[in-house]
Design brief:
Blueprint lengths: L1 H17 L17 E12 L14 E9 L8 E8 L14 E9 L2 E10 L2 H19 L1 H26 L4 H21 L3 H27 L8 H5 L11 H34 L5 H30 L1 H9 L4 H4 L3 H32 L15
Antiparallel strand pairs: 1-2, 1-4, 2-3, 4-5
C-alpha cells in the first residue's frame, strides 16, 4: 500500500516539476561566496618550459607562464598572467596551447582581482558542434521521423533532468521513480514516433514487459550478490552532498541498470512491431499463430545483434578496469567477485535477458492486436475494372 501511494505521489509530482524552471544543481540554502567566480577566458600567449619526454612521468615540477584574456564576468577584457604548475604526473597535468578556451577561477577583494588559476579547458562548444551535426543528420536522413526523434529526445532529457534526478535528490524511492519515468518515456516515445495505433500498442506492451523483466532480474541479483552500489567515486560522493539526502544506493544501482537497458529493449520492441505490421498488411489472411511465428523469426534475427550492442557498450565503459585486471593476470573467479565487474555483468545480462523476453511479448501482443476486429485498420479497396 505504501509503495502504491508513493507511485501516485510521484506521478502527480511530475506535473509540478515539468511546470517549474530548470532545477539548480547547487544547494540554494548553502552560503554563497560572492568574492569568487568561475568565468571563461582565452589563452593569448604561453611560455612553456622544455620538457624532457624521457623524464615525463617522474614527479618533477615545471611551470607554464600563461597570459589569459578574461572574456566573461566582472573582469571581462582584462589580461592576467597565471603560473600553471606541472607536476610531471600525466594523469593530472594538462599542457595548454595558444588560443585554447579555458575556465578560470577568479577571487576578488574590493573589486580587485586577488587570485586566479586555470581550472580546465572548455569543451562545451565542441560538444555543441557535435550535437548540431547529430540533429542535422537526423533531419537529413530521417525527415519527419527524424524531427519526431528530436522531440522524443528532448522529452526524455527533460524527464530525466527535471523529474527523475530531482525526485531522487528529494529522497523518493529510486526504484519506483525510475519505473514510472521509464514507462512514461517508452509510451511518449512510441506514440510520438508512430502515433496511436496497434503498432504502437504492441511495442509499448513488449517494451515495458521487457524492462520489467530486466528490472526484476537486476533487483534480485543485486540483493543476492550483495552489491553496495558504492563501487565508484561518484557514488561515494553522493554520501556528502549538501542536501543531506540519505540515498538507497542499491536502488540507484537498479535505476541505472533500467535506464541503460531501456534503449535497446525499446528498439527491439518497435522493430518487431513495425515488421509485423507490414507483414499483416501485405498478407491479411495470416492467422494469429502464423503472425506470432513471423514475429518470433524476426526477433531471433535481431536478438543476437542487440545483445552484442549491450555487451560491447558496457565493455567499452569498463575498458580501463578490464585492462588492469588482465595485466595482473587476475583469475576469472576473482574478477567476477570484484564489485564493479559484477555490477557490469549483472547490468549486461539483465538487460540482455529483458531484451530477449521483449521479443515474444511484442510478437504475442502484435499477433492478437493485429487480428483484433476492434483494432483492424482499414485498407484501401481497389475497384475492379
Amino acid at each position: 500500500m505504501r509503495s502504491l501511494k508513493q507511485f501516485f505521489t510521484i506521478f502527480f509530482v511530475i506535473i509540478f516539476f515539468l511546470s517549474t524552471p530548470m532545477v539548480s544543481w547547487a544547494n540554494t540554502d548553502a552560503p554563497l561566496q560572492p568574492l569568487s567566480e568561475v568565468v571563461r577566458g582565452r589563452i593569448i600567449s604561453i611560455e612553456t618550459p622544455e620538457v624532457d619526454e624521457e623524464k615525463h612521468g617522474s614527479f618533477t615540477t615545471d611551470v607554464q607562464s600563461v597570459l589569459v584574456q578574461v572574456t566573461q564576468g566582472e573582469f571581462r577584457d582584462s589580461e592576467i598572467t597565471i603560473d600553471h604548475t606541472l607536476s610531471g604526473n600525466m594523469a593530472r597535468d594538462f599542457y595548454y596551447q595558444e588560443g585554447d578556451r579555458v575556465l578560470l577561477w577568479i577571487e576578488s577583494t574590493n573589486g580587485e582581482m586577488s587570485r586566479a588559476y586555470i581550472r580546465e579547458v572548455t569543451r562545451d562548444h565542441y560538444l555543441m558542434y557535435l550535437t548540431l551535426f547529430f540533429i542535422f543528420s537526423l533531419l537529413l536522413i530521417g525527415g519527419k521521423k527524424g524531427a519526431k526523434a528530436i522531440i522524443t529526445l528532448c522529452i526524455t532529457g527533460l524527464l530525466v533532468i527535471k523529474v527523475l534526478l530531482p525526485l531522487i535528490l528529494e529522497g523518493f524511492n529510486p526504484t519506483i521513480v525510475t519505473i514510472v519515468i521509464a514507462s512514461i518515456i517508452v509510451s511518449s516515445t512510441l506514440i510520438i514516433i508512430s502515433g496511436f495505433n496497434r503498432k504502437t500498442y504492441a511495442a509499448i506492451i513488449g517494451t515495458i514487459g521487457g524492462v520489467i523483466i530486466a528490472g526484476i532480474l537486476a533487483s534480485t541479483m543485486t540483493s543476492l550478490t550483495r552489491l553496495t552500489g558504492l563501487s565508484n567515486n561518484e557514488a561515494q560522493t553522493l554520501m556528502y552532498l549538501p542536501q543531506g539526502t540519505r540515498f538507497n544506493f542499491q536502488g540507484l544501482l537498479f535505476s541505472g541498470m533500467i535506464i541503460g537497458a531501456m534503449g535497446a529493449v525499446l528498439d527491439v520492441g518497435m522493430s518487431i512491431s513495425s515488421s509485423m505490421d507490414e507483414i499483416s498488411r501485405a498478407n491479411p489472411s495470416l492467422t494469429t499463430k502464423e503472425l506470432i511465428g513471423s514475429g518470433l523469426n524476426i526477433g531471433r534475427d535481431i536478438m543476437g545483434t542487440m545483445s552484442n550492442t549491450l555487451i560491447l557498450a558496457y565493455t567499452g565503459a569498463s575498458m580501463h578496469l578490464l585492462l588492469v585486471l588482465s595485466a595482473y593476470d587476475v583469475p576469472l573467479s576473482r574478477i567476477m567477485s570484484v564489485e564493479p565487474i559484477a555490477t557490469e555483468v549483472i547490468r549486461i545480462l539483465s538487460g540482455s535477458i529483458g531484451l530477449i523476453y521483449a521479443i515474444p511479448l511484442t510478437a504475442i501482443a502484435a499477433g492478437f492486436l493485429y487480428n483484433s476486429p476492434a483494432l483492424q485498420q482499414k485498407k484501401p479497396i481497389k475497384n475492379k475494372v
